[in-house]
């Protein structure tokens, strides 16, 4: 594991070490000393003899002991020479703090490439550049400008120093949790997100990975590692730069590519990542997921000492897809036994003053509710922690006892409890006790609900997980040699676009049922072909020079008689000539008119971050006006394809709407998987559009296909 | 103003006064004394002589001085007798704390009605029952169990004591704001939400009204007052009970009707109310709106000391519909003059370390940005307030100076500033100073963005406001006598449903173009009518006993020839007979087949809370599967109708989709207004459905109309 040498480095050189207290090169050494780094520190500055009592070296290669990692605090342009010197020394890694690289445009990108190249040549791995640094909290290797980050089991990966500061501050003030590592990922010039993920996946001291991402260079590899990681460690991620302005802002910040938000979000979620959209929820979600067992049955109880909080929580949890089932009769009877008559015991449970004089009743209620087999977790909301403050001091002691009891309950029943307390900011001891037992406490009811929500989301992912399609397939191997011929022919003719009938041939080769076009070169041939068609015929011009066939009058539909076919043929050829008299006209394609059905659209394209992706949606206005589509990164399994079909809002239409017969959903899912196979088989495909596909009660018809190849490499 | 006597009461009797410290009847007196109520206090308890040094009375009517208001802390069943006694004394109002009324079902509701009736008879107005009480913070009349609520200019109306506690706690801990009044509205047995609103609208000490609502008894009157109030005082409202479980929870809590969420939300927003969905945002939104001028041009600048916060803020503000325009060239040049070269000056502005050694640069940047004519407000995000903590103590003093400068700036330019600070919870003096100048400070970036969002939302409402349609119309007066005859005829026949052709007649009477059905009693008549039709004809059964005409084979379309019409007539009659041999068959309606166009649906119904409402959407799957509809409370003006049409997601389809000609949007708007007129004219209408209406390039066709009357009153 190459990163281990760097992230667990036992010796560090500080290039740009300084005696000036305002300089990073001073602060870094100060911090390492203050936080008692367990390894060796070597300041590097040719102008100084000693800094903070440590011997100073002229250059890294002068150090006569091993150096695992180097922190470079000098300006961008000095970096390549320093790396050359580090190479001589045999340094494993370098943290490059300076900005002024890719994020500043073309000139900076050139320097960044130069740095990456120099590092590779010298076998040095790079964190950054343009990074706030990194911290290993286990051996106190603190190479970030941040003091006093709490130690714990969450690994933190961010592209913003301020977001790191935000999350660390929150951990300190509002939790008992902390971090195993912190890495400011910066511009990803060398080490990429997925490499850090691979390291944390294997690190025994890390239980959850918390990420703030502006853009990723290798989204595809990241997803591969995410699939593996989320099976035993949750990943919690906020991706910013969704909006146009946000994207621009990212540009000037880390120089990363801000991806298409919808694609990124669904790709992340399919890999089991918990995607967070509000920064307030980011750390709490990581706290909950790293502390508590996930909820596998989606079902939660709410316990509150006031109807208002109970009602708001019910609304929020419902929005998050959490179920709030009625408690069993037995549970209800037990609750009635200890609560006043005005209490509501169905779910939400409202104690209606039943805890005012004895907050221990909370623990009793919690036990009764958690014993209910239908309940997977518990949200407690309201004043707990504040009874001692609000009513009588002795109640504080009863609350502490209740905390101990509830804390042990979580372990015993293997079901999570999350608490909202109005008095969290007053920091009563009872709430700190709960946190000691891994029960998170939030002063925000919204945040507490979200945390229940992510436990349900993660539990649901784990439950529905079945070995995902691997990322390399060997499908369609038999069809491939024939398919390749079609692409070669097009290339030979200098085309990047397949003709419609060529596209259909590819689909048919792979077993996807594109209606077979017959090429007719004369009206006579067209008539003869049409005769064999059961029902109406369609005629379309075939010419590599005519892409938008309908627009130039190159398509005629609903042709029934011989004379209709004949005159359609002639009109089409005439129209094509009129449009472009030099057009290379191959003839006219004759095909059966598709039966009625529901229109769907399938499209694939190359995404900058995730490689080949696929889009699906119901045709016409649903895609074009209402943007009701779903995405996946390719390849996809049958299960993933089914999910894509099911998650469009218009899915009920396929199911048979208002008494009309259901459409052949299996055929659609099968076609999505076939498309995945085709994209896998022919890496030369840049874009493939099946539009429209008409889905019948049984089977489907692929009416039109457009395949565009990647430009040939010079 | 009747409520003034109560909410500004100068004397109060406590019925159920007690020496037991755990009783509400003790705590109430203790609180009045502690908080130095400026008026007189009269404990009432026949078993005691003195409580807390105050003379105790046997009953209210024994008190020999005037009593403005009574706090009743005794159980529900005692309330009617107490009210009778209060009546003798001439008390103006009573606060009824006890639960056990309407929220507990039928028995409780009976008691509640009894209480309301007794109060009315005795000229007493009631707050509650089932209320946490009320507070007047101006004269310290504190009749709620809450201590130490800060005084200020926000009026608080809630249906949850715990939500009141939440909001008051937040005000105390996180702001310098406070409250003018607090009222726990409870079950609204007597005084309704709108009456409180009327009072606060006129109260000179209230600048904003903050509401937590579970359900309202008189939503319609509330909206009328909201329209008036929001013109000079913002109303900020959270409505819970949206989800099914949430609704059930409300049921057991306040016994109010939890309304259809979509209807309520759009009704509130059309009245200028700021509807909040996250409880975390409720108080902050009120703080911002009561402290700062609204933003009228939707355009905001973001100023941050880190790219991460800037990017997240840009995403969130974009989601909220806030614009983040590029700063003018002049502004950019000025910013470049004081910031380091790495700074981003377009918008968001990222100071890129330019404030690290001198946070006063923030104030300088703020001034430059606020001077930009395109910018209506400023969001500052990041570390301000923490430079003194994070870097060097002397910076804290510079931050304080910057706070004074920025504070005065808000007043000078009349543009709001809102601050997010990571260090808010550490409470540095500089942040308190900002609050003193009415610049709210939040530790949550999400909340800070939302607060900018509500300033934009409110500014936008005020800007686009034009005198709303009054709530009483006199349209359609000429048509009404004829229309009434139709309803009377149906009643006379014992029907609650109009026949389709009767419904169309009503529409035609009011100038809405429903295609005229001709009633044919014989095949001959049908053929003769069809002859005069230009294009195809449609035949439909006419029978009060057959509602679902298509289902029984009672409709035939696309009829072209005489023989088609003749056989269609006979089939229809046969089918109807087969369905129900005793059906009252009036004949067959003959009408022209509608031309092609876009289908829309219009429906009206009576809402429990808001009275008559109207729904609009594009027909078929868009309404039924994708629920893409808009609502309004009736009546509506032309402008409101236009808004309804524009706010459906499928609106682009009407505008002309993919080169097809635009549909007649004016005709749709006109029809919505006509529907409003019809509902106003005939209060007997319970429900009216126009489905489908086909909108053409010019004009529209109302194909089917169903009008259901309210059940006749026994």
Summary, kept brief:
The structure is a homodimer of 714-residue chains. Chain A is of the alpha/beta class and 714 residues long. Chain A contains 25 helices and 29 strands.
Topology at a glance:
The structure is a homodimer of 714-residue chains.
Chain A: H1 2-7, E1 11-15, H2 24-34, E2 40-44, E3 50-51, E4 54-55, E5 69-72, H3 79-89, E6 93-96, H4 106-121, E7 125-127, E8 134-136, E9 141-142, E10 151-158, H5 161-174, E11 179-184, H6 193-202, E12 208-213, H7 219-229, E13 235-239, H8 244-253, H9 261-270, E14 274-276, H10 282-291, E15 300-304, H11 307-319, H12 329-338, E16 349-350, H13 360-371, E17 377-382, H14 387-390, H15 394-413, E18 417-421, H16 429-436, E19 441-442, H17 445-464, H18 480-492, H19 500-509, E20 518-520, H20 523-531, E21 537-542, E22 555-559, H21 562-579, E23 587-592, E24 598-607, E25 611-618, H22 621-624, E26 629-633, H23 638-646, H24 651-654, H25 665-681, E27 685-695, E28 700-702, E29 705-709
Parallel strand pairs in A: 1-2, 1-5, 5-6, 6-7, 10-11, 10-12, 12-13, 13-14, 15-16, 15-17, 17-18, 18-19
Antiparallel strand pairs in A: 3-4, 8-9, 8-11, 20-23, 21-22, 21-23, 24-25, 24-27, 25-26, 27-28, 27-29
